[in-house]
Amino acid sequence: QVQLLESGGGLVQAGGSLRLSCAASERTFVSYAVGWFRQAPGKEREFVAGISRSAGNTVYADSVKDRFTISRDNADNTVYLQMDSLKPEDTAVYYCAATYSWSTVVVRTTRREYDYWGQGSQVTVSS
């Protein structure tokens, strides 16, 4: 059972930056594809960014492209989401998710493809 722990959320003004971290309990985390999702009040959880096993590929939602960057430090079993130029519409609870992957290039972009989820981290962007 993989445990994921998000951190780094908080309150920031529009135009500011935050970096979310997702630390995994699994020592073979390098073998897992990882994604970030977010859920705003009254809305469904949506895909934000994903990274393949071993960081071969990344995919971003159109709404965050060129503003957010997903990366991973396999030595530390941690995946990051660097969020720049934040907007009020980025306000949501952000979740990281992971699933074991045989592929080094496939990025998972839907909720049902992920087996493990973190507890979520609140990000609030004020205008």
Write up this protein.
This protein has strands at 4-7, 10-13, 18-24, 32-39, 46-51, 58-60, 68-73, 78-83, 92-100, 116-117, 121-126. The protein is globular. A hairpin with a 6-residue loop joins strand 5 and strand 6. With 127 residues, it is mostly beta strands. The strands form two sheets. Strands 2, 4, 5, 6, 9, 10 and 11 form a seven-stranded mixed β-sheet that branches. A four-stranded antiparallel β-sheet has the order 1-3-8-7, with no helix packed on it. The mean pLDDT is 95.
Radius of gyration, in angstroms, nearest whole number? 13 Å
Report, as a whole number of angstroms, the end-to-end distance. Answer: 40 Å
What structural class do you assign from the helix and strand content? Answer: mainly beta
Shape annotation: globular
How many alpha or pi helices?
0
| Average pLDDT level | 95
H/E element sequence? EEEEEEEEEEE
**Largest sheet: number of strands, sense, barrel closure:** 7 strands, mixed
The tally of strands reads 11
Instruction: State which percent range the strand residues make up.
Output: over 45%
- The level of helicity is under 10%
Give the low-confidence spans: none
